[in-house]
């Protein structure tokens, strides 16, 4: 399970933090609303809860794998 490390509050949006499984790095997911975080925690697909977040960052929420570790494991070529 992805561990959430905390939530930093700004004005209307927050920075949601998660740790990776691959290298225990803390990844910030900025500019999300508390409602989006609640939607995600209730089981919404990450693409639905955070449609504006880069796919590589959403992957951390899905598998716990950061972009650097993904590239080490699978390479950068899609073919």
Question: What do you see in this structure?
Answer:
- Helices cover 37% and strands 24% of the residues.
- It has one domain.
- It contains four helices and three strands.
- It has a three-stranded antiparallel β-sheet with strand order 1-2-3.
- By secondary structure, the chain is of the alpha+beta class.
Shape: elongated
Order of neighbouring strands in the sheet with most strands: 1-2-3
End-to-end distance: 29 Å
Strand content: 15-25%
The number of distinct helices, counting runs of at least 4 residues, comes to: 4
Order of helices and strands: EEEHHHH
Helix content: 25-40%
What is the domain tally?
A: 1
Number of strands: 3
Low-confidence stretches: none
Average pLDDT, rounded to a whole number, is 84
Radius of gyration: 13 Å
Sketch the major β-sheet: 3 strands, antiparallel
What oligomerization state is this entry in?
A: single chain
Secondary structural class:
alpha+beta
């Amino acid at each position: 399970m992805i561990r959430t490390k905390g939530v930093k509050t700004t004005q209307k949006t927050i920075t949601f933090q998660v740790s990776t499984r691959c290298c225990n790095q803390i990844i910030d997911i900025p500019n999300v609303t508390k409602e989006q975080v609640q939607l995600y925690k209730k089981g919404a697909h990450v693409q639905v809860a955070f449609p504006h977040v880069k796919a590589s960052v959403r992957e951390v929420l899905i598998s716990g794998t950061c972009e650097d570790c993904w590239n080490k494991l699978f390479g950068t070529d899609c073919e």
